[in-house]
């Protein structure tokens, strides 16, 4: 009898292993680490690049002193008692620009779609704003090519894969847009590198680094920003699927100003 029990042990172990595997959590479901398709909701990370910026150059300090943020993290740009005195460009319905639209938690949602010509598009609910990231093997523009393209609110972005991490480099950023709501500036020499990783079926993380030797004495590295993928029933509004239909487009239009700031927004 004892020998029979010993012979049964391997079979019982195999049976219990199958049961445990069948009860594995949904998070262990298969997913394509190179596919970010879907609608994502921000669930973690600081509202700036990180809570503390690196020391600024004299040129950066001079530029920072011109800014009047509604919220401050620097003695160089103190917040006024009356938020309506802020000169935040976004308060007068200018584009938030990059990287601010990525790091700020005010908007929460964005959708990722792919085009047949090799682009990944981020569709931001706020501003009803598309951002294109080229994944067709091209290099970021430099020199005369970059001068010909000129600055853009969201820059010129090119991505490539390093294993399961998508690395995106953005150059040609318009220096009129602030880095964040705390008033930190960026120069026309700024370059941002993002690292996207899909860590499971429902979670995407992003870390970024701002390189701007004109305004900052060291690269500014971010904390981990986290997004959660939303099931279709969570982003279907009145029968319409997506962020622009039903949920509201969230465009800042001066004629819709609500008095939060004297400039509108």
Task: Quickly describe the structure.
With about 260 residues, the protein is of the alpha+beta class. Helix content is about 15%, strand content about 25%. It has a single domain, classed as Calycin beta-barrel core domain (Lipocalin).
Walkthrough of the structure:
The structure is a single chain. The chain has 265 residues and is of the alpha+beta class. The protein has one domain (36-256): Calycin beta-barrel core domain (Lipocalin), CATH 2.40.128. It is built from four helices and twelve strands. It has helices at residues 2-22, 58-64, 100-103, 143-149, and strands at 38-44, 109-114, 119-124, 129-134, 156-162, 165-171, 191-200, 203-211, 220-221, 225-229, 236-237, 240-241. Residues 12-24 have low confidence and may be disordered.
Mean of residue pLDDT?
89
Strand content: 25-35%
At CATH level 3, the topology is Lipocalin
Q: Please state the second-level CATH architecture.
A: Beta Barrel
- Alpha-carbon Rg, integer: 23 Å
Uncertain spans: 12-24
> What is the CATH class designation?
Mainly Beta
């Amino acid at each position: 009898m004892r020998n029979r029990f010993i012979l049964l042990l391997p079979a019982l172990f195999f049976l219990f292993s199958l049961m445990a595997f069948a009860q594995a959590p949904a998070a262990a479901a298969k997913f394509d680490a190179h596919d970010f398709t879907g609608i994502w909701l921000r669930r973690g990370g600081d509202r700036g690049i990180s809570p503390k910026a690196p020391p600024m150059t004299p040129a950066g300090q001079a530029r920072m002193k011109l800014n009047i943020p509604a919220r401050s993290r620097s003695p160089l740009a103190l917040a006024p008692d009356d938020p309506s005195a802020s000169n935040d460009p976004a308060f007068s319905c200018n584009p938030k620009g990059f990287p601010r639209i990525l790091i700020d938690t005010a908007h929460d949602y964005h959708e990722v779609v792919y085009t047949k010509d090799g682009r990944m598009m981020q569709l931001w609910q706020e501003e009803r704003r598309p951002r294109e990231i080229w994944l067709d093997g091209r290099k970021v523009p430099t020199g005369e090519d970059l001068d010909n393209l000129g600055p853009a609110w969201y820059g010129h972005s090119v991505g490539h894969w390093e294993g399961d991490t998508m690395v995106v480099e953005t150059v040609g950023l318009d220096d009129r847009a602030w880095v964040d709501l705390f008033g930190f500036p960026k120069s026309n020499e700024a370059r941002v590198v993002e690292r996207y990783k899909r860590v499971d079926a429902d979670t995407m993380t992003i870390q970024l680094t701002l390189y701007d030797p004109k305004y900052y004495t060291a690269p500014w590295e971010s904390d981990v920003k986290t997004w959660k993928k939303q099931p279709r029933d969570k982003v279907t509004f009145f029968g319409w699927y997506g962020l622009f239909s039903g949920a509201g487009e969230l465009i800042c239009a001066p004629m819709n100003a609500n008095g939060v700031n004297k400039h509108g927004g």
